[in-house]
Structure prediction request, 463 residues.
Amino acid sequence: MRTLRHGLPLTSLFTGAATVGALLLAAPGAHAADPPLRDLAAAQGKVVGTAVTSSKLSGTYADIAGREFNSLTPGNAMKWESVEPSQGSYNWSAADRVVDFAEAHDQQVRGHTLVWHSQNPSWLTNGNWTPDQLRTLLHDHIDTEVGRYKGRLASWDVVNEAFNEDGTLRSDLWSDNLGSGYIADALTWAHAADPGAKLYINDYNVEGVNAKSDGLYDLVRSLKQDGVPIDGVGLQAHLILGQVPSTLQQNIQRFADLGVDVAITELDVRMQLPSDSGKLTRQAADFKSVVSACTAVTRCVGVTVWGFADSDSWIPDVFDGYGAATPYDGDYQPKPAYSAIAEALGGTGDTGGGDGGGDGGGGTPPEGCTAAYSVVNQWNTGFTGQVTLSCSGASLSSWRAHWTFGAGQHLTQAWNAGCSQSGAEVSCANASYNGTVPDGGSVTFGFNASWSGSNPVPEVTLG
Ligand code: XIL
Prediction:
């Protein structure tokens, strides 16, 4: 889907007998935990994305990827060496898995990447091609891959890392054999294969105003003048702690002023290991300034992090002695950088002490406030549930609801609350706009979950 469908109102369809059970509430905290990042971003009209490793999309990794982000970029699964490891023999399984997951979680997909100097299959790089043959191979590759996902991807990083640091065109397989025109050709072919996808040129070290971003700027301006279908510029933003360019927002703005969108496509902030609390605080400030630079510019569509957890980051493999570059640690606990992203997206930065989706809480729920759980729609593999909190003779200023799915049910999506599931335990906290349950009033939130075998009313627990 090209449009975000997150946050749909709860359907009140009943297809089976509704089940109702009691739920106790945790006490109100000092202030509300934030809803997931994707809800904060959506409220700003922005995308918050993550690169994902296709093979890891289960368990906690999948829970966080689905809950926190409204856009996914396959970290490697769509690269040429992944999809066509030997000539004419395609393997789409990893890429398909990311796209299917995204559609099941109402997420956009950012295709990455079609034309690059790196991660090409050896049959391609070692082949002895004439320029005409290479041009045909590239055209076919773009046509096949973009065509396969036509209508399903929001955007494509069509050309990746085409520039040298001095702003001249990089010498590589493509420019050496096809000349500089390969960029316009690739964009034109991609547009023909999926006219609805937003087409980007993407690079690193182009975040600030510098010689390299000047080269990119000149190219984008001339592509626009020539009527080449280019929709956006991707700033990778693989940054070093404390080195967010001071001209980042100015640079985003100048590209926007050319009439293209801008996306931060691969944000990470690496530090020399070991990390410590001072570095993590500094890192949070860096994440916040990058996300804020994007929210400040209308045509900056959003920010994607290059892996959301330190255990899934490319940094330690490539930059010796560096790591801890993402918003979650290796145990999937949110770091200060997570809260900083939330704050830059308009949240309070309060993670609720859990994994970013709400956990903890504690205390005694006020008498007079109750919660009712019901299954409002159930089908073969899934169901829609809702929880209504009602107060009479009392009120809540912020709330959390917890339960245990005792029969293997698994939360896939929630609205009007930030929910997370860890094992069988589900924890939900109010969204920014419905933390108050007034005396004599009620608040309802909803969720989708999977089930098989049976779908009993959850056991009630205190949060
Ligand atoms: C990285 C992946 O994250 C690694 O798993 C892989 O080994 C190398 O590539 N710029 C890009 C990304 O555009 O595709 C790169 O991804 C990181 C740098």
